[in-house]
Specification:
Mean pLDDT: 87
Helix content: 25-40%
CATH architecture of the largest domain: 3-Layer(aba) Sandwich
Number of helices: 11
Strand content: 15-25%
CATH superfamily of the largest domain: Periplasmic binding protein-like II
Keywords: Activator, DNA-binding, Transcription, Transcription regulation
CATH topology of the largest domain: D-Maltodextrin-Binding Protein, domain 2
Organism: Rhodococcus wratislaviensis (Tsukamurella wratislaviensis)
Protein name: LysR family transcriptional regulator
Domain HTH lysR-type: 3-60
CATH class of the largest domain: Alpha Beta
Number of strands: 14
Distance between the termini: 38 Å
GO molecular function: DNA binding; DNA-binding transcription factor activity
Oligomer: single chain
Largest sheet: 6 strands, mixed
Amino acid sequence: MNMSLAHLVALRELARRGTMVAVAEELGYTAGAVSQQIAALEKAVGSRLVTRVGRNVVLTDSGTVLAEHAVKILSAEQSALDALRAVHDDVAAPLLLGTFGSTAAALLPPVVAAAQRKYPHLALSSRELDVDEAATAVQRGQVDVAFGLDYPNSPMPRTPDIEMITLRSERFGLAVSSGAYGIRTEGTIDLREAAEWNWILPPAETQFGRAVRIACRQEGFEPIVRHEIVDTAVSLALAGKGLGAAPVTDMMIRLNSSVPIIRVDLEQEIGRRIVLIRLAGSETRPTVRAITDIVRAAVDPASTAAEKI
C-alpha cells in the first residue's frame, strides 16, 4: 500500500467540505482532478472510499475511517517538518495566526514583536477571520492557530479535534454618550434599567449577538435593537452619537478609543473569554508551542499557566 499525502489531503477536504467542487476550489484543482486523486487513493488502499448518491458523492464507511486517519497523518507530517526545522532549537517554520477585529488591534502588534524578538526565524503571518468561523478555519487548516471568543451563555461548539486555551476573561459594560438615559458619569447599573433603552447589537445569529440577547432575556426583557452592527468601532461611534447603548469590554474600547463615550458597568456578570484555538495535539509542533507561549505572555504577562477547555 502506497498512499500519497496529496491524495490524503483530497480525502480530508472531501470529508470536510462534502463535494468535489468545493474541494477543487479549496485546493486549486479541477473537480475532475480531485476525482482522479480519490480514485488513485482507492486503488492504493484496495477499498471503495466514496459512493454516488444522486448527483453527489458521500464517503463510505472505509472512506470515513481513512479520512479520520488522514487528519492525523497530515498533522504528524507537519509536526515532523517543524521538528526537523527545530533540530538546533531554532523555531524556523511558517505559522499563520487567525485574528479578528479587537485582537488584531490590541494583541497582534505585541505578539508579532515578541515573536520577532524571541524567534527571529519564525515566519509569522496573520489573516483576519470572521470570529465565529475561527474554529472552522483551524479545523480546515486555513490557519494554524486562531484567536476566538467564547461566551458562557452561548459557548463555542466543542469538537474532539479542537483545543481552546483561555487567555483572558472580560466583563461587559454598556457604552453610551454623555447625557443619554440620564447617564453623565461612570457608574454601575442593573441590566434591567436598560430594558427601555435603544441598543446597538450584532445580528442575533452571531455568537456575540446571541449571547447579549440571552443575557437580557434572563433578566426578563428583549433588547430594543435599533441598529444591527457587526463592526465594533462603528458600534462605538454610533453610541458616542447618542444612537443607543453598545455592549463593550476594555479591549473593544481600544478599537475606537477617541469616541466620547461613558462606560457603564453592570451588576450582572456578563462576560466573554478570549481563547486561542488550535488542533488537539498540535502542541507537539514547535511553532505552535512557541506561539502559544508568546500569545499567553502578550495577553497576560503575569500568566504562568493557561486553562485548556
